[in-house]
Fold this sequence. Notes:
EC number: 2.1.1.192
Shape: elongated
Order of helices and strands: HHHEEEEEHEHEHEHEHHEHEHE
Family: Belongs to the radical SAM superfamily. RlmN family.
Largest sheet: 10 strands, mixed
Mean pLDDT: 90
Pfam families: Radical_SAM
Cofactor: [4Fe-4S] cluster
GO molecular function: 4 iron, 4 sulfur cluster binding; metal ion binding; rRNA (adenine(2503)-C2-)-methyltransferase activity; rRNA binding; tRNA (adenine(37)-C2)-methyltransferase activity; tRNA binding
Amino acid sequence: MTTTLYDLDREAFGEVLDGEPRYRLDQLWSGLYEQLADPVDITNLPKKLRARLDSELPTALTKVTESVNDKGDTVKFLWELDGGSRVETVLMLYPDRATVCVSSQAGCAMACGFCATGQAGFTRHLTVGEIVEQVVRASQRAAESNRRVSNIVFMGMGEPMANLERVWSATERIHGDIGLSARHITISTVGLVPGIRAMRDLPLPVNLAVSLHAANDTLRNELVPINKRYPIDDLLDACADYLDVKNRRVSFEWAMIDGVNDRDSDAEELAELCRKLRPSAHVNLIPLNPTPGYPTKGTPLKKVYAFRDLLEKLGANATVRQNRGTDIDAACGQLAAGQPVTLSKKR
């Protein structure tokens, strides 16, 4: 696989710049990660050096399409990678923040039937450079609207914990060099307990999000197949350990599926799980977004809010997440990088 511009760390760039004055490394690093500039646009570098860097170190992401929703506040990028795999990145502009939803794999092996990425299957892990470059490109796009990216969520294509070594290296780069606070970075998982425990022992206090979707093993085994390997009790133990060490919020993502996980009994089970964590986990309720491979519909919005109200009455903190980019297939669970999906049987 070709080494690309953002694959290189500072030490590796020092070798690339061997023979140049030492200060050139500072200039290059600042240009790439503080100015978020392409090498050809880092004007305090000599033109000859800029041209060499541009020719020797290609970027990893080739833009195939860029889609903007009707409101103009959500942008979805479709990228092609070395070897032909494709991934998607979503930039979401809010009044008080700008968030990038980053992919960590091309496809996903977790096989959650209601998720378009899971329906498409797994292709490969993304490299550090491919992950970091998503943030850089989205940040450049945000700057066109005089906005600065403030939040990163690893909730795009793929299971971050299955590619944790590269995801963590990218996170350190995003934190240490691009300059985003660890408290504004969220890494999600469908419940890979070893990954949660490994991240517990890593230095940055990033937020942990768990795609839960069911609060009993019988239903979760069906919705999230990895639960058969790492059942809910083991998952909760890992989340509790993460809270103890990091003192950061753990959130439970809950895609609301009509007639499947939106009953009063589901709310009661979920609230009980939340109370087991101290401080209590926060629940993000997400009306299921439509995907070609999962015919079951999302819970009607009125019922979503009633579910939230019941959770709060039962002592759990809950928020209804605002869907962004549904009209351009950029919302939660819809990222498939243009890959066809197979229609699954209805429950």
